[in-house]
Amino acid sequence: MWACSRRAVGRRACSDAASLRWVPNFICPNCGNRSTSTERTAGFRDRARGCERCGFGFLFELLDDYYPAPNAAFFLLDQQGRLIGAGRGARELTGLGDLDVIGRKVNEVLGLEFDTGDDHIGTALEWGVRVLDKQVVVHAEGDRPEPAKADIFPAYDDDGGLLLVLTPR
Length: 169
Prior knowledge:
Distance between the termini: 28 Å
Number of domains: 1
Oligomer: single chain
Shape: globular
Order of helices and strands: EEEEEEEHHHEHEEE
Strand order of the largest sheet: 7-6-11-10-9-8
CATH architecture: 2-Layer Sandwich
Number of helices: 4
CATH topology: Beta-Lactamase
CATH superfamily: PAS domain
Largest sheet: 6 strands, antiparallel
Number of strands: 11
Radius of gyration: 17 Å
Structural class: alpha+beta
């Protein structure tokens, strides 16, 4: 997303292309609130930005704006593919919440079965690339298989990790 760096902020376009700069997009994994900001941290501290709507501790930075479906489920993974949180929609899709998933490997908990047989989670973790619109079947612990679409976003900070967004089909 591009935004104007002068007084033209809020206008649809700028006449001077040199005055454009990139403004990061953020999404809250807890409530799904989207925001833009030039600041990646909270004030003068190194602490990550938190969600203004729900108060969640950190936001995920995206390369461009992303509009998740209203029924999408958010899962947070660390650099080793372990779940560190279950956000908005997770309980509705899988029946699992934070206490059920934290510290466990994503495939152990969600049993993701991609239609191509590829390990898209591993690819995103290893290469730091987005993986979008992949068909998957979610086999959450003891639950019936649920077809979904997976969007996977790497973290662009020192902590690494991923944001996994599953949208039921």
